[in-house]
Amino acid sequence: MSSKTERNDRRSGKKPVFGNRPEGPRDKGQKPAPQGFGGRDDAPRPPRAPDRSKSDADNFLWGRHPVLAALANPARRGTGRLLATAERAAEIEEGKLAHGHKIEVVEVQALTRMLPAGAVHQGLAFKVQPLEGVSLEELADPAQGIIVMLDQLTDPQNVGAIFRSALAFGARGIIVQDRHAPALAGALAKAAVGATERLPHARVTNLSRALERLADLGWRAVGLDGTGEQTLEEALDRQPTVLVMGSEGDGIRRLVAEHCDVLAKIPMPGGFESLNVSNAAAVALYEASRAQRG
């Protein structure tokens, strides 16, 4: 993840200054030039075309919903490089959706080459720096509503889907561990359908200490665990709630689980072993929002 970041605190008006991106190392795996009639192999060799599949996805948003959400985010104002096909550029100009960003019109093939292989860009891409987020205190104070904490979830599709569900069910924001969380761009932002631009997130060094701080601020932590003695319905109430989600396979780590007030499970009368973590998060968010309403 790039060290240059932006805040997704929509109240912030700060604009980071971007420098030129350093070039990567020269490719040393070029094939020898064909030998001529005289057997010479020291003729100049043309440089190999760059491998577009290795594009830095952390610096790109692509797809209509993620890009339009980023353009509307005040923290993005005046930053980034907006790339669009002629058709999308006309749509943005007609709808006044650029929010002060200059549109760079490109051919669809050129746009495809700029992005990772398989990126469904829909004629739009926005080259930006990843969002930094807000502090834990900004996210959690005053204690009210629901916060989602992700314990070492690294799959961009799952994390993006959880952002989308969290925004849909009115969560305050999402907490991730700084060293074990993907950047909020690329495939993650595509899966989130713009939610990463609208829902605040906080990156913390230690989740256990973060839960201790949240307890001091008046939050109650409910960890999702298939072995929990209580069901979610039994564990949830109207108190400010942190829903703690663990990674698929490993679940919530022991020290993090020990800092939860209760471990709860999603009852599955159908007998299937488990849900995908993003689906489990959607179920938990629905139950938690229902409990908040009493």
Fold topology:
Elements: E1 60-62, H1 64-72, E2 81-84, H2 86-95, E3 103-105, H3 108-114, E4 124-127, H4 136-140, E5 146-151, H5 156-168, E6 173-177, H6 186-192, H7 195-198, E7 201-204, H8 207-216, E8 220-224, E9 230-231, H9 232-235, E10 241-246, H10 254-258, E11 262-265, H11 277-293
Parallel strand pairs: 2-3, 5-6, 5-10, 6-7, 8-10, 8-11, 9-11
Antiparallel strand pairs: 1-4, 2-4
Helix pairs in contact: 5-6, 5-11
Task: Please explain how this structure is put together.
This protein has 294 residues and is an alpha/beta fold. It has 11 helices and 11 strands. It is elongated. Helix 5 runs parallel beside helix 6 and helix 5 packs parallel to helix 11 (277-293). 31% of the residues lie in helices and 16% in strands. The strands form 2 sheets. It has a 7-stranded parallel β-sheet with strand order 7-6-5-10-8-11-9, sandwiched between helices. A 4-stranded mixed β-sheet has the order 1-4-2-3. Helix 5 (156-168) links the parallel strand 5 (146-151) and strand 6. It has helices at 64-72, 86-95, 108-114, 136-140, 156-168, 186-192, 195-198, 207-216, 232-235, 254-258, 277-293; strands at 60-62, 81-84, 103-105, 124-127, 146-151, 173-177, 201-204, 220-224, 230-231, 241-246, 262-265.
